[in-house]
Design goal:
Layout lengths: L1 H14 L2 H5 L12 H20 L20 H19 L5 H28 L7 H16 L2 H10 L1 H12 L6
Helix pairs in contact: 3-5, 4-5, 4-7, 4-8
GO cellular component, one term: extracellular space
Protein name: IFNL3 protein
GO molecular function, one term: cytokine activity
Amino acid sequence: TPLLALVLGASLGAAFPQDALKKSCSLSKYQFLVPHELKAVQKMKEQFEDIMLLSDRKCNTRLFHRKWNTADLSVPDRVMLVEAELDLATAMLGLPTTPSFTETRQRPLAFLTQAREDLRGCMAKEAPSHQPSGKLRHWLQKLEMAKRTETTSCLEASAILHLFQVLNDLRCAALREQCT
């Protein structure tokens, strides 16, 4: 029986080439995040908060404080929003830091990087020429302005401290219907 399963699996793999499987866009794996990923993010966030207590950061960025909810956006807008949020988060998690914090953030960084790549693939396939709504366009402009005017440490703090909001936005983008 194991040999039959192996042969059948190999023949099905040949019948459905990997490129054909990659052509479908499915973000469903992000609808319900697995507990060990959430725990890794929580551990990293807590360690970062401890580091922040020892620093003297004065940040004015309110990038993640919006007057609208992600659920109010169209699905392509949600995907664009989360892609931009993940771009910021992965860039900030990729910055040099202390060895212990580098180790703590490796798992969240790998997860968020994979999610960003999945989102990019979906945008390229489903809405390659999508233009963002006014709400989203304004927020994207605010993000670009923050990248030019805020310190790297403030951007890092904002991205890390709001990772659960980013994860919720990711879940919302994965849903094809309304989300809360």
